[in-house]
């Protein structure tokens, strides 16, 4: 049942207004930077919950003559953006003030940060609610534009390089997505007519009439374009640099940004699966290569942020593998993992932020044996590490397990083998990192720390001495967000019922559009 | 019809020539001027298509190109150029060899695309003139922009490479998406202008911190 609603407009408009308010208020009262963004994102999350509630009951909300469209899939992704967006924004409030105290930035730049933070959330939400093929490109590129200057926020040599690489690669990549979208639009125009040809929901019934070679070219462009932004190997070169150079609180949001590109890919590619099954197989193979590369690089990292960045690469590999299968079980696993990974990775980045807050560094070699780390941070980190590694009964296990079964059911045993193997290595990699950072005793590590500090790491994270570590635990506004996300992850694992009610409509939405509406 | 075709072909050839100049010329201010000339040619080409097809939307597109690609972007490039060295960081090939390679890339790709037009066109009418030339030129400039990104060491030249790619995509819309509504077109060009602007802000920052716009010199991260 489709009904017109103002909700999609409000969900996009409120964070945009918050971004504007940050700029205006920031000029007069820079000390209150962040309050407008937090208020805006909180209201947005409330609106998203209302939208999800209506969509789960089978309603589809449309606005702007069908240009904005919210179904089960949009509801799931907007909810993920809302929850992670609020957690990261609230976390940033104290985190960045600590950065100001440590001399990494100045208070006058905080309104700029929170304004772009709210704008980034706005563009991500818009991307999930648009039903227009060309606007999908426009808003996914807008997410890159809103975030590029936050990657360079500290304005250091390394962060500038990371920002340049991020913006250059993603802009060029996404231009290919535009070409792909335009080719599809051109192929659809004679059959659908007028502006309807730009509506994603109008494409499925005419896909079989598109010229075959041209469609394959368009789909390849889409995979390259949105795949670059999603961090698929071999287009991922920007990702570890951007994640490690951005403020940690923003890295948590960036990890949601790549999922928005994965969503865009899922939204458009799945329509073509019934006619072009090889595209699905290509996506499975890309997912597999992505997860393998992610784990290989992750082990070599000394910087926790880079390690988590490669973990994101790996987990996107799982999501793509599930999506490529084209079966409802595959979609279910992919979307379930999409949700789990978004929450887990946001939490793990916030834990890393807590470590920066208390110890001033993210280098494992410098964190080993130090005493400033809090027990609650450690609990959150280990929860995240075990869940993302697929340890039952945590949420990451169920979603990965669903993907394993879906690949096996599709007869792709090689994919199942690689996925299980990568999952075990992920567990080993992150638990080892957690052990080194939180549990290793000081006496045992003194010499090793000195030895590893000189090599094995990278130059990306400035190994500043911990000049400013006021407490063993970060303040409650930061800790609260980490604990809330950890609790959500545990609850999703133990009580999957309510989450299934959210994911099942998302899977049905894909199937509904693929079947021609 | 014949006159129109020769005008279109002449403008298209000039468009390709300005791509080569914008990328190969070492003096950055002349490279920006070549880009400016290309944007003017693109606007003129859109007017020519508007008259030939005839399609009034293309006049609007031409105005959009004039404001953004022949106006805002060259001004931005010019503004940031003042803070950069006058000459680009040389790439591995010398000037002569680089020019020859660039010309070969252009000619080779044009032949490749032009020979496969029936394959690339979404429906048969597009394979014929005037769309065929339009698509071939667009794809050729796109490939050349990518070649530029891969072969240059200078960050500002990389930005010019991005501008060429965006121009190529804009040109391809004449054949592929003539009925694209103005709102979508405004969204697309706004993205382009903003991405070039933010890239330039970052390149200026890099120049300030590193003292150079050489991409190899600034590479400290692993990727």
Automatic annotation (TrEMBL), chain A:
What is the protein's major site of localization?
A: membrane
Q: Does the keyword Transmembrane helix apply?
A: yes
Supply the Pfam families for this chain: Proton_antipo_M
Q: Which UniProt keywords apply?
A: Cell membrane, Membrane, Oxidoreductase, Transmembrane, Transmembrane helix
Return the Low complexity bias intervals.
449-465
Q: Which GO terms describe its molecular function?
A: oxidoreductase activity
Q: Where is the NADH:quinone oxidoreductase/Mrp antiporter transmembrane domain?
A: 131-426
Residue span of region Disordered: 449-471
Decide whether keyword tRNA-binding is in the record: no
Q: Where in the cell is it found?
A: Cell membrane; Membrane
Question: Which chain positions lie within coiled-coil regions?
Answer: none
Show the InterPro entries listed in the entry: ComplexI-like_HydComp (IPR052175), ND/Mrp_TM (IPR001750)
Q: Name one GO cellular component term.
A: plasma membrane
Q: How does it sit in the membrane?
A: Multi-pass membrane protein
Q: Which domain of life is it from?
A: Bacteria
Where are the membrane-spanning stretches?
6-25, 32-52, 72-91, 112-129, 135-154, 166-188, 216-239, 251-273, 279-300, 316-336, 342-363, 375-392, 412-431, 476-495
Q: What is the protein named? A: Na(+)/H(+) antiporter subunit A
From TrEMBL, chain B:
Matches recorded under InterPro entries: HyfE-like (IPR038730), NUOK/Mnh_C1-like (IPR039428)
Where would one find coiled-coil regions in this protein? Answer: none
Q: Where in the cell is it found?
A: Cell membrane
Keyword Membrane assigned to the entry: answer is: yes
List membrane-spanning regions: 30-52, 58-81, 93-113, 133-151, 158-178, 184-206
User: Keywords in UniProt for this one?
Assistant: Cell membrane, Membrane, Oxidoreductase, Transmembrane, Transmembrane helix
Q: How does the record say this protein sits in the membrane? A: Multi-pass membrane protein
The protein's Enzyme Commission number? 1.-.-.-
Organism domain of life? Bacteria
What protein name is recorded for this chain?
Hydrogenase-4 component E
**Gene that encodes the chain:** hyfE
Q: GO molecular-function annotation terms? A: oxidoreductase activity
Record carries keyword tRNA processing: no
Return any one Pfam family short name. Answer: Oxidored_q2
* Any one cellular-component term (Gene Ontology): plasma membrane
